[in-house]
Design a protein that fits this description.
Elements: H1 2-30, E1 33-41, E2 48-57, E3 63-72, H2 80-94, E4 102-105, H3 109-114, E5 119-122, H4 124-142, H5 144-162, H6 164-169, E6 191-192, E7 195-196
Parallel strand pairs: 1-4, 4-5
Antiparallel strand pairs: 1-2, 2-3, 6-7
């Protein structure tokens, strides 16, 4: 049973990859395609991955998005050489031009070095997050009321989460803190022939 599921999953993935590769040809020729690349680390097993997404426009000005791959780096460190090799291999698989395809990144030193031959664009969300985080940190150190406000919000979230009756009455779960990830998960999934990729 397990081998059957594995084979079927691999066959479906290969089919989707072929269809996506074909669909991207026009976007490559028209230069209406860009990539988003990020590094991820599993919180539990501490495994490292390269996450690569593609966005493109078609002649009717419709926007599309698809996840190309999440590649396990194995025991390899997050060095620019290892990242570059992984990204280059993936671009080759899809027939994407390495030097002409714009890439949006979080401006991490290893990613920037790995993509030194590419056209790189800084992620606006990460930049905005850095600005807001820095401004809020300065506000908390200079204004006692700002620090007290954050403490009160944190205590309120903790209280609500510990009280299941309150949490169940809310339309959405309370969140405290604001990390930049997962920005990419906010994109709409791409569809080919009515099937979600």
């Amino acid at each position: 049973m397990r081998k059957t599921v594995s084979r079927e999953t691999a066959a479906v993935a290969a089919n989707v990859k072929v269809r996506l590769t074909e669909r991207l040809k026009d976007a490559i020729d028209d230069r209406t395609m860009s990539l988003s690349i990020d590094m991820l680390t599993d919180d539990y097993r501490k495994q490292s991955y390269v996450d690569i997404h593609v966005s493109w426009m078609e002649c009717d000005c419709s926007r599309h998005h698809a996840a190309l791959a999440v590649r396990h780096l194995g025991a390899a460190a997050h060095t620019d050489d290892n990242i570059s090799t992984s990204v280059t291999d993936l671009l080759t698989e899809y027939g994407l031009p390495e030097h002409d395809t714009p890439v949006t990144t979080d401006h991490g030193a290893n990613i920037v070095a790995a993509l030194c031959n590419n056209v790189c664009v800084d992620c606006l969300c990460h930049r905005l997050h850095t600005v807001l985080q820095s401004a809020w940190r300065d506000a908390k150190s200079n204004e006692p009321d700002a620090a007290a406000y954050e403490t009160a919000i944190s205590e309120l979230c903790r209280f609500v989460k510990q009280s299941t009756e309150l949490q169940e009455q809310l339309p959405k779960s309370l969140k405290h803190g604001g990390h930049t990830r997962p920005w990419l998960s906010m994109h709409r999934a791409c569809r080919i022939g009515g099937q979600q990729l």
